[in-house]
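Subject: Predicted fold for Adhesion G-protein coupled receptor G2-like, 319 residues

User T.R. writes:
Posting the sequence so we have a shared reference for the thread.
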Amino acid sequence: MSEYVPGKKVLCSCNHLTSFALLMNVYQKSGETSHLLSMTSYIGCGISFICLILTIIIHVCCKNLWKLMASKILINLCVSLAITTLIFLVGMQPYASKKLPACKAVAALLHYFLLTSLMWMAVEALHVFLAAVVVFKTFQSHFLLTSSIVAWGVPGVIVIITLVINDTNNYVRIEQVCWLTKGPFYAAFLAPVAIILLFNLTMFFLVILRLISMQRDKHFQHETRKPRILGIVGLISLFGLSWVLAFLAFGEAAQVFQLLFAIFNTLQGMFIFIFYCICKKDARDVICPCLRKGKKENARKRVEPIQTSENSRTAETNA
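User M.O. replies:
I've generated the structure tokens; pasting them so everyone works from the same file.
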């Protein structure tokens, strides 16, 4: 809103609305961010952050899960996604965008952790493909180390190059967010995202083809459809395939796809927690005994003071 009085100053004010979909504005079209899109982004990121922290705690604290290669990869992905959502929640605020150095720092950090998150999704896709299609034990020992170097290192190189070129001016305040200018956005962010999504889509379809071929197996035929469907939906969430929605946000359907993009991507942490901590049998088999053990210990601690007091009364009576 603005208030104009002839011969006096103009006072301008606006509501700070930031949408997660603005970070993936493929067609670079400016426009107002709806209140619904903004609230969806913040609420979704808040829920995802809590779910990601819970997922990390569960897979780190349970020794049987921590031993698995899949859990270690999942933890790296969850750490990267958790930091991304935290930067969005804390950094995409008026106090961060007012000062240019802080604005550039937020944009660079968000750029880095968005890329690392997508890189770890690619690692997850490759790991699932190798486990499902080929013999994986021959190079499993070096897989995590190599993946860590690539997933954490390559985005760092991209961000450093973006910072060096044009003297950090590739990161600016655009509309309501601190983000990349048009040229660097396409070269340093959208191009890597497109390559990763194409790779993940390829891995996804190869895994699905492998699952279809496994239907001839009698053991597989006895499995219900529900676990298969949950597994496929879990793979879509884990591989970050919902990012494809950003490329469909054009024309009259732009707002719809932006909303879908914000919902599915800001809630990715919740989906990961549901599919890989609640629905996955391996995780449940580890979590449930831990919870029962914790309940038993709490019950024992509550009983011990009562028994001690009763023993004390008995001793006093006997005395």
